Amino acid sequence: MAANTTGEIFKVTTFGLSHGVALGAIVDGCPAGLELSPQDIQDELDKRRPGTSKITTARNEKDQVEILSGIFEGKTDGTPIAAIVRNKDQRSKNYDNLRDNPRAGHGDLCWNQKFGNYNYNGGGRGSGRITIGHTIGGAVSKKLLANYGITTTAHVTQIHNIKNTNKYTLNEIKANITKNNVRCADLEVAKQMEDEILKLKQEGNSTGGIVEIIIDGLPLGLGQPVFDKIDGDLAKALMNIGAVKGVEIGVGFECATLTGRQMNDEIYLDGDMIKTRTNNAGGVLGGMTTGMPLILKIAVKPTPSVSGIQNTVNLKDMQPTQIEIEGRHDPCICPRVTTVAEAACNMTIADHMIRAGFIHPDKI
Amino acid sequence: MAANTTGEIFKVTTFGLSHGVALGAIVDGCPAGLELSPQDIQDELDKRRPGTSKITTARNEKDQVEILSGIFEGKTDGTPIAAIVRNKDQRSKNYDNLRDNPRAGHGDLCWNQKFGNYNYNGGGRGSGRITIGHTIGGAVSKKLLANYGITTTAHVTQIHNIKNTNKYTLNEIKANITKNNVRCADLEVAKQMEDEILKLKQEGNSTGGIVEIIIDGLPLGLGQPVFDKIDGDLAKALMNIGAVKGVEIGVGFECATLTGRQMNDEIYLDGDMIKTRTNNAGGVLGGMTTGMPLILKIAVKPTPSVSGIQNTVNLKDMQPTQIEIEGRHDPCICPRVTTVAEAACNMTIADHMIRAGFIHPDKI
Amino acid sequence: MAANTTGEIFKVTTFGLSHGVALGAIVDGCPAGLELSPQDIQDELDKRRPGTSKITTARNEKDQVEILSGIFEGKTDGTPIAAIVRNKDQRSKNYDNLRDNPRAGHGDLCWNQKFGNYNYNGGGRGSGRITIGHTIGGAVSKKLLANYGITTTAHVTQIHNIKNTNKYTLNEIKANITKNNVRCADLEVAKQMEDEILKLKQEGNSTGGIVEIIIDGLPLGLGQPVFDKIDGDLAKALMNIGAVKGVEIGVGFECATLTGRQMNDEIYLDGDMIKTRTNNAGGVLGGMTTGMPLILKIAVKPTPSVSGIQNTVNLKDMQPTQIEIEGRHDPCICPRVTTVAEAACNMTIADHMIRAGFIHPDKI
Amino acid sequence: MAANTTGEIFKVTTFGLSHGVALGAIVDGCPAGLELSPQDIQDELDKRRPGTSKITTARNEKDQVEILSGIFEGKTDGTPIAAIVRNKDQRSKNYDNLRDNPRAGHGDLCWNQKFGNYNYNGGGRGSGRITIGHTIGGAVSKKLLANYGITTTAHVTQIHNIKNTNKYTLNEIKANITKNNVRCADLEVAKQMEDEILKLKQEGNSTGGIVEIIIDGLPLGLGQPVFDKIDGDLAKALMNIGAVKGVEIGVGFECATLTGRQMNDEIYLDGDMIKTRTNNAGGVLGGMTTGMPLILKIAVKPTPSVSGIQNTVNLKDMQPTQIEIEGRHDPCICPRVTTVAEAACNMTIADHMIRAGFIHPDKI
To answer: Nearest Cα to D240, choosing from A4, A301, C284?
Structure first.
């Protein structure tokens, strides 16, 4: 089994391979009555799609979406929304040398062990290209949540050793990340990050980074305590993005060095709203939202596809061998991960909003 | 809804409150034929239970387990294993001043918003005491996994600013953590940690820390790629522990600063086993195990119950007010979190082992 | 796996054996704020419990319930409701001759094949006694649904060849079934049924029957079309009762002989309510409720435990052998099935009411 | 929510409307290594598709399948199998008069209440056309089960008042149903049935019938006792087919009139196989298979779309009104239901085979 469905009520099931006929998603459980157009989905696909700048892979895919069902007279009708994207620019011959020769840093060996085969053409369903499905589900949930004043914003705070430590308001972040290829909130730092990525690209190397996600407009008390905590489900959704190796909320790992008096966020009354003066908790206590912005950080590993000769083991004759990775790859996937991270969070939040009765399950 | 069940096939459902009649768990989906005694569960409860040293809460609970069903002639019989622990030493009067006055750093306000009530007696189901249920589920899964050579070991690597950076083998770690109250692998550092905790306790303060978890003996290819990745499910299980604010796997957040060439773990042949020379990935690629040890770290926040006067808001008259927390609390919960983290991982791994066909769902 | 949980949001997990320590259920997902007392559950257990008349088994169990968690100040608090019943009158020695000798009409052989063991003491978890768990879940859901004006009523319409064809209003049915041991709506027919059961009991034989279930007060449009239709889920819930061999809704199997013009229920306006003049559909169209009463019938097989010598096969030496069933058994379980059928329907309806947004998931 | 997924491990998610762009299904959880071609799916779609004889609707759809993913080098690869069928011959103008005027016997009113809209073009997702999705899922599961010697055969035993009471072997049934349009096991009776259907068609009327399903080759002990019994899950799967109003297993409703001695199937030894001399239980005891053929019957209601003027209520002005149904409809859907019933059973059995460890979840 490959567990291609996420969500309990707002359910997204995805399918498709890097070099197959098409990729797509079925969104089941979106309430009826939501205005939704192909363009709503296309906009998110365009943010994610490759070939838009020098720092992404050269694979040229328009990623044009077709909606097959679920929209009636311009609105969702309560039935499953099916949407697909056909592959156009696959070049499978690039991958012939990888048959039976698993790549370091990729899941090839694991896929092969689990299913008795692995798709050496671009990694099959282990490819980052499958996040087209995530992006479709994310686009629908984003539109749904916008109706309730909830937005999710992901921005790059670190690439290799270049960090953005300058603080911006949420509105500034939302505006600035559209003005640079790295999706960094600081335009100066963005340039340094882009230069760093291009430098590594020229060396046939790659790098990782850190992405921060801010979910704003959440109601108080969202989340299912004990085993489906809101931070538990977000951690899962984010860790499920292929390249993510760490997730933290609020002060995160820094909490280890704090005392209780330092960590606690003081409760106070702001008009008739109960708020906290600080937000070390990152907007979550006891697995439920506090009404403060929910703030997460994820660690994104460097793209494993780097140039140069690699040692590996041939699975057929079980002998050491060497491979050289060709194909077209991103030297740093952080900028594109922002769209996928937003999608992952939006799907999770939409599901929880319905589960907790904040959004009616059938019609809005 | 409160989502008190974890697992898809190996399912654990927990119940009970800090100051209610009893707490417990139903383990459904454990295969028949596993030798299991009350002592197997009691051993884990004893590791977790309070009142065993100066650095835990003074609440004195024996946490005696009673098994109500699921064992036939000394072995599991394939039907649900129900086990309960009765509360004995609750002192609810300690909490009267907290009625309608939510505490900083606790989920009181969130529970109240969600359910229209919150249990001011020891936090109700928001209390750490509910991890008795986790521990029962963990004990059964630990016994099951032991049959397949899989062990999970959690040890404390940091308390406040005191870090254990000395390296030990897994066997040394397993041995050493039983020899000190902090469950640290280094006996010297353990003493410093214990002193630090006692110092903070005397100040009526608390602190956080970091726990590392090592899962050993896993087969290659365990995990469900896409939405139920093994690292995704472990991240969720760990983040679902109340005090955890961050989860990382392998090099974790450090990966942001690495290049692809540094991060990739080289594949090689060791006899007839395919291994990797390093384990930066922490034993997971593409959401599946690589056969190398699975290594996670979690950030544990300081106990929010600290002495001194706190500002808060009274929910009845919606006016600012002040409270002082009494009751008995742990100055640092990291040592006790190790048992719960092991339980969370063991339940998750047991579930995945059955889901992926490594363990037969009905009988071993 | 034994799948001991029912429901998607209103979830009931049951455990326990015929001759074990205790049986019980965890009800997770009941909204907070529902008044609930032990007596609410005890009343349903008393309806179901054996030893109350000559036509039930002589096993004398008080079936006293103890609630372990989930109630705070007289109301549900949103956390799991755990309730148990301890076995008191088990006599396991009655069953020693059944070790390795599966009984006809029972699941002994199937349990043994699936789990590698079967509990020859009263059938273990294959016993009808496990419906104590159903009854606990049913009692909570019954109380919840009563708040929304929904009632479920099961009455016996046939025992062996004695049928009740007289029509009564729902209120008359509700009143009359409490006045006789068979739970038949017609008091005269009830006597004949009781005589028939006693006659078969004296012969050491048993018989089956038919139970009709009427669910009243349902809103229009309840049910999840396609794969979780309300009639699909009710059919499953009822067929899951051990002795049930058939389920029909509305005219049921008679629909085979009707034309479309005969079968269709004409839509008309009654004040400002849309109703249908007939109810051949039994209150369900397209898998959703029509607002008319939902009417089901179930076929209940004769108790397989009858006196006299039976042929079987000894599983140890795989040779033909003979057994004689002792123990205490119901000559006809239809009267007691009514409580379990009501419970099964109430749990299913409660779950659907929350899933469809008619009941808030967290608080009422 | 519309619950468009069936199955726990072998999961089928369907989508699409009667008059939308396309219909289809995602099959997730089929093990890798199964030979599967588009023709395997096309064969089942061809059995189900309309326009193939005088007794089906005149809507002319080729129902050509396109597989989008999940097949690698001629075999399933463990990733989701996505398959679609595009609508070609929709004539939406036939349905304009039905806008706001719900039809008797259809779910129009229920859909409208639930989702705030209903698709008056051919019933939208309430149409029988959506069973294209079931058929795709059924085709994949049929191919999978064939590898394990399991076959499912549905044949028509009654149409209106014409019954087939002649007995045939399973092989004869399999052969004969392909030789007539009604899919009846007796070729003489088939002719009478076909004449009866044509007669009703000429009158603009319709009728119901009964379909028997025989599942052969099942292992002993398949099913999850308590809440996912094999008969419970099959009852649900079959009742979820739009027109089904009753399900029975083995002797079904007749069991009400039997005594325990008559009903019990005697256990005996046939070589080294344990069998029962009769099969009144229909192959299921205690919710698990006995190893005998599993035999079910379903009641299929008459098509509600009949000619002539119907009374209804206009939903916009809430006034009585009249409609006349045009469009193209089946005078009796029993023959086409056989394919859908087989699909429903095959999907359910495939899921249970994997859940119980009879089929490996990842690779065959």
So the answer is: C284
